[in-house]
Amino acid sequence: MYDRLKGFRDFYPDEMSARRALIDSLEDTARRYGFREVGTPALERTEMYVDKSGEEIVEELYTFTDKGGRELALAPELTPTVARMVVAKQQELAKPIKWFSTRPFWRYEEPQQGRFREFYQTNVDIFGSAEPEADAEILAYAADAMTDLGLSADEFEFRVSHRDILGGLLEAVDSAVDVRAAIRAVDKSAKIETAEYHDLLHEAGLTYDEAETVDDLLDTDDLSALTDFAGTDRVANAVENLQAVLAAAEDYGVREYTTLSLETARGLDYYTGVVFECFDSTGEISRAVFGGGRYDDLIESFGGQPTPAVGVAPGLAPLSLLLQRADVWPEESLSTDYYVLQVGDTRDVAAATARDLRARGHVVETDVSDRSFGAQLEYADAINAETTVIVGERDLANGELTIKDMVSGDQVAVPVEDFPGDREAPRYEDFA
Amino acid sequence: MYDRLKGFRDFYPDEMSARRALIDSLEDTARRYGFREVGTPALERTEMYVDKSGEEIVEELYTFTDKGGRELALAPELTPTVARMVVAKQQELAKPIKWFSTRPFWRYEEPQQGRFREFYQTNVDIFGSAEPEADAEILAYAADAMTDLGLSADEFEFRVSHRDILGGLLEAVDSAVDVRAAIRAVDKSAKIETAEYHDLLHEAGLTYDEAETVDDLLDTDDLSALTDFAGTDRVANAVENLQAVLAAAEDYGVREYTTLSLETARGLDYYTGVVFECFDSTGEISRAVFGGGRYDDLIESFGGQPTPAVGVAPGLAPLSLLLQRADVWPEESLSTDYYVLQVGDTRDVAAATARDLRARGHVVETDVSDRSFGAQLEYADAINAETTVIVGERDLANGELTIKDMVSGDQVAVPVEDFPGDREAPRYEDFA
């Protein structure tokens, strides 16, 4: 007997049906915003991640050398791949480019609640617009995706920040700071002790007093005070941009789901502007459910023309936790419209009946195991068949079938030629 | 600039929309037969394939050692994974177990037309029935999947064979033959020269005269002659089973798509009974489009209770070739229901209009790039918007929007409060 790998999951039909409902909903929301599906490879050259995604992700890559000597990695995230795709066809693609896809990614890290070595995300990105409307459309997509799943404004919030406010403030505090390292420290601040956080800021080049100052600055909602503190165009422009994004989010009807939260930094190095993370408002799930943000420099760093970009990537596993916590996780069960039950030598009529019902779009099962009446009825029950069509030798001799409602147990005899007849979805009630 | 890996593909939205239509159709047909979706990992332990899938596949695996020292492989096919899953929950799962899934697989082989290193299949399997109805249901699913895609009986055929007829005949010809090696030779016979094929049979233990005899035997449609030639229960039972499967296929309405073809062997070692391959009837595509068959011993060899199984796995790339050849490949294009065009400071009304239309399920885009009237109209055209809703400052001052039919170019002014109003899909005609 072979075992499943640690951090990998098998999804059996009950659970998969709920996951499919979740994926369909996330994708349907994206389609309605005019995002278009793309398909992307599982493997990329390792150097693409080594060059671009920052240390943290590279340590966790599944990497290997293929039989042709190529250094490969299983994709740990989508962004570098879609950036590569934009560069490859930058002349042909009409902007804004609006793409989505749902697929697995892989990171070698310790599995924990809601986090696996193989994990699925729906990535949603806009390339080619630097306008605040693009950031706001990503926020609006993400908010609609959540409410379309049955969540309300009480149950989640998007904590919104801006990389240039963070970076500009850090530089204003100490011009010698390693901004990337300091931002990674801020990103971790909620998950670690204050002392450890301040140690990380210190390693990034700040004194412990300056670390305290950063703490105080990031704790404010008063953006104009930050502009004043920094006194730089960089922070002033970033504050203005963040305010414009929030104003657009207001017009887009999703301002109510957002909270200003400058401690929100996102771990990846390539973010440049607005960043945000989705949190469980009740605090029961302490980690971010998912996040997103603007990454205006990535396409150019991949050798493309300067192309601003912004995106979000709901992860199925953490999102599932939130939906279960909020009691709106889709039902885990199988549904079947018809079971066609064969008694005696009736396979031809049973098969034709099943065929007719399937042609009308219904989910139909029939016996493929040469089972008894009782065993078939039990199976029909196990798959939650709504209606069982009993095709019995004796009934057939009278030119009849029996239609059985599986909830009430009521049944009725029907002439063979009347079923399904011209009915789209014939049920017991149509003949009783 | 980073390059895509050889044998891997990026799917941009036009092509992806056609692929999505293909996948949706393959899966919808499976759902109507009562197959249930499962989700499976990309990685498995290498030994699972080394032990079970035969030499041919192992040579082509993407394998590596993970950071925990595990020998892993990217899945080259689904069957071993679902067999593992059946064994893991064999007590709980109600039989027959009917599963489907669509996902990528990976093999390190030379890319050629319709064959890639990363390739997608929709796998459809039944576990727990040894009856001919199960084989026939797989054939019926496969035939319906093809006709649901727009193909007709003139355009494809399922060449059906039986592993035990093949094996039994080979043993009857020469009891010392290496049956597996000889079956692999038969599987290759259509793709190689006769002399090379006979060399392979010779390597499997036959004389060249016996190889000629095998050729003659496999060329017949007269199954009873084969039973007589072999004179063994094995062949007699296999012939009876194959005839029972074809009779069930007749009842299931799909006999017309099948052809008896004993040269069809399938390459993988684990097949045990009926096997079949789908071919382009015109012969333009010479290789098999996809295949399937019965593998009754695999679950037990994985440490499970004896569990008969049969399945099929249409591959998207070869199937795409067939659909393109038959001119029924889904259209490669984007569709958009509405573009909401902003002129001047009208973002709030435009956003509310887009929101209302999306809430009705429509695909709606609006400006996120601060573009001119002309640039927006051009973009609306590029995304094939059916209707453009023009939200202009001057119109709005009169309490009006303009609804423009993008095909005719006709437009009409409409009071803001009437659009969309209580209409589900308001168009120009509703107001003209």
Describe the structure.
Chains A, B: It holds the Pfam family HGTP_anticodon. Chains A, B: It is found in: Cytoplasm. Chains A, B: It catalyses: tRNA(His) + L-histidine + ATP = L-histidyl-tRNA(His) + AMP + diphosphate + H(+). Chains A, B: Keywords: Aminoacyl-tRNA synthetase, ATP-binding, Cytoplasm, Ligase, Nucleotide-binding, Protein biosynthesis. Chains A, B: This is Histidine--tRNA ligase. The structure is a homodimer of 432-residue chains. Chain A is α+β, with helices and mostly antiparallel strands and 432 residues long. Chain A folds into 2 domains: 13-325, BirA Bifunctional Protein, domain 2 (2-Layer Sandwich); 336-430, 3-Layer(aba) Sandwich (Rossmann fold). Chain A contains 16 helices and 16 strands. In chain A, the strands form 3 sheets. The first copy, chain A, has an 8-stranded mixed β-sheet. In chain A, a hairpin with a 5-residue loop joins strand 3 (63-65) and strand 4 (71-74). In chain A, helix 6 (163-173) runs antiparallel to helix 11 (233-251) and helix 10 packs antiparallel against helix 11. The longest helix of chain A has 20 residues, at 13-32. The radius of gyration of chain A is 28 Å and the shape is elongated.
Question: Which CATH-level-2 architecture of the largest domain in chain A?
Answer: 2-Layer Sandwich
* Contiguous runs where pLDDT drops below 50 for at least 5 residues of chain A: none
Identify the biggest protein-protein contact and residues per side: A-B, 95 and 95 residues
Mean pLDDT of chain A: 94
Please summarize the sheet with the most strands of chain A: 8 strands, mixed
CATH topology name of the largest domain in chain A, in short, is BirA Bifunctional Protein, domain 2
Distance from N terminus to C terminus of chain A (CA atoms, Å) equals 52 Å
User: How many distinct helices of chain A?
Assistant: 16
CATH class of the largest domain in chain A: Alpha Beta
The residue fraction in helices of chain A comes out at 25-40%
- Domain module count of chain A: 2
Strands of the biggest beta sheet of chain A: in what spatial order?
A: 1-5-6-11-10-9-7-8
Question: At the fourth CATH level, what is the homologous superfamily of the largest domain in chain A?
Answer: Bira Bifunctional Protein, Domain 2
Number of strands of chain A: 16
User: Radius of gyration of chain A, rounded?
Assistant: 28 Å
Binding site for L-histidine (chains A, B): 77-79, 107, 121, 125, 266, 270-271
Domain Aminoacyl-transfer RNA synthetases class-II family profile (chains A, B): 1-432
GO molecular function (chains A, B): ATP binding; histidine-tRNA ligase activity
Family (chains A, B): Belongs to the class-II aminoacyl-tRNA synthetase family.
